[in-house]
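Appendix C: a fully annotated inverse folding record. The material below is reproduced so that readers can follow the format used throughout the book. The structure is listed first as tokens, followed by the designed sequence.
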């Protein structure tokens, strides 16, 4: 039984990545990992949104989710290596523009990274008892930077 659990613990992350449908190549693994990272970002934003809709938002849940957003945003530049885009024949929602217009992409990514730092600061403030309005504004700004990237660099 112990060996079965150990095997599951080792194989589960690999199976999750292979479930995205790309080949087991460096580019395919990068595209699948990118997808999983964006799923985690979406889950974190959903947690924040759900908490802000609650009668009594859980500040610690909001803070943890904002920390996830900030950490993922910081790591994001490494999610788009050469050979992990649609030109490599991979299943991805990223447009080729990510790689063909790197300066524009870097600009919108940097805006998201900056807004994620502000989101975390606002979540810290909310957890320390500051009014929710600062957090709401930070969420709105971070969401706006997400939308700008989606509009220019993600397929529908």
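Designed amino acids, in order:
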């Amino acid at each position: 039984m112990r060996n079965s659990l150990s095997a599951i613990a080792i194989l589960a992350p690999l199976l999750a990545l292979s479930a995205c449908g790309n080949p087991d190549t460096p580019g395919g693994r990068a595209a699948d990992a990118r997808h999983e990272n964006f799923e985690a970002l979406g889950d974190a934003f959903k947690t924040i949104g759900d908490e802000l809709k609650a009668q009594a938002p859980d500040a610690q849940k909001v803070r943890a989710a904002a920390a996830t957003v900030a950490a993922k945003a910081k790591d994001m530049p490494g999610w788009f290596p050469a050979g992990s885009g649609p030109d490599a024949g991979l299943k991805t929602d990223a447009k080729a523009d990510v790689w063909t217009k790197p300066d524009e992409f870097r600009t919108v990514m940097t805006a998201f990274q900056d807004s994620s730092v502000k989101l975390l600061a606002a979540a810290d403030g909310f957890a320390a008892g500051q009014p929710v309005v600062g957090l709401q504004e930070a969420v709105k700004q971070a969401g706006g930077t997400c939308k700008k990237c989606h509009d220019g660099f993600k397929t529908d």
